[in-house]
């Protein structure tokens, strides 16, 4: 039985958030496209270099040591998702592998329900001294997050997320711009938790969490 209060019209922002909770299982970890720029300078009259070349499959530059702080992600995980109030419970499957000679970790994810397939690229930014996480998925959502590293048992990524609300094959649809926070905690060997929060333009916040165990 509906009360008089429930029949009142909700503000547009509240209705929009409720729609987002219903349609999108929140907290998909998240990647944008990565560009590799190669600059080659060759003197006009330089003699050819006849010294032995390393094998093509050998990376001449080792992966940065900081990347080891992300090794807890490696492997295949099943994550039970606890959504914000009004949301839908979900199961997230993650598989993380080394890429580019270990300089990056690629995480491929599938989320059900929702048919969401996403990829996150984790790495280390040696110029700014921060971890990066770039995200995109088959709905068209994308995010770009950074972290200063582990502190008191927490690895926190923060950054902007453009979240598609209703996926559409035309390439044009509605969405919302959010501020995402992913808070990782390692609970044991092959077991970590990611507590997520989403801040909307009006300042309201939704919270969810993933409990992930290696398979």
List the helices and strands and how they pair.
Blueprint: H1 12-23, E1 75-82, E2 90-99, E3 104-112, E4 116-125, E5 130-137, E6 142-147, E7 150-151, E8 154-164, E9 175-188, E10 191-199, E11 205-214
Antiparallel strand pairs: 1-2, 1-11, 2-3, 3-4, 4-5, 5-6, 6-8, 7-8, 8-9, 9-10, 10-11
Structure, described:
The protein is mostly beta strands. It has one helix spanning 12-23; strands at residues 75-82, 90-99, 104-112, 116-125, 130-137, 142-147, 150-151, 154-164, 175-188, 191-199, 205-214. The protein has a 10-stranded antiparallel beta barrel with strand order 1-2-3-4-5-6-8-9-10-11.
Task: Provide a concise account of the structure shown.
By secondary structure, the protein is mainly β.
């Amino acid at each position: 039985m509906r009360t008089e209060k429930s029949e009142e019209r909700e503000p547009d922002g509240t209705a929009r958030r409720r729609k987002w909770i219903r349609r999108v299982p929140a907290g998909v970890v998240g990647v944008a496209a990565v560009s590799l720029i190669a600059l080659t300078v060759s003197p006009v009259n330089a003699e050819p270099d006849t010294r032995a070349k390393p094998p093509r499959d050998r990376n001449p530059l080792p992966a940065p040591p900081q990347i080891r702080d992300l090794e807890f992600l490696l492997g295949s995980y099943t994550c039970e998702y606890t959504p914000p109030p009004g949301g839908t419970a979900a199961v997230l499957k993650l598989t993380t592998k080394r890429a580019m000679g270990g300089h990056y970790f690629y995480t491929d994810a599938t989320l059900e329900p929702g048919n969401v397939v996403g990829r996150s690229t984790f790495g280390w930014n040696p110029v700014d001294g921060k971890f990066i996480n770039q995200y995109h998925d088959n709905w068209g959502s994308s995010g770009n997050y950074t972290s200063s590293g582990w502190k008191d048992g927490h690895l926190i990524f923060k950054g902007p997320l453009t979240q598609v609300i209703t996926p559409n094959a035309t390439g044009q649809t509605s969405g919302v711009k959010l501020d995402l926070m992913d808070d990782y905690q390692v609970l044991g060997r092959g077991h970590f938790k990611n507590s997520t929060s989403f801040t909307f333009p009006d300042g309201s916040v939704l919270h969810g969490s993933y409990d992930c165990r290696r398979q």
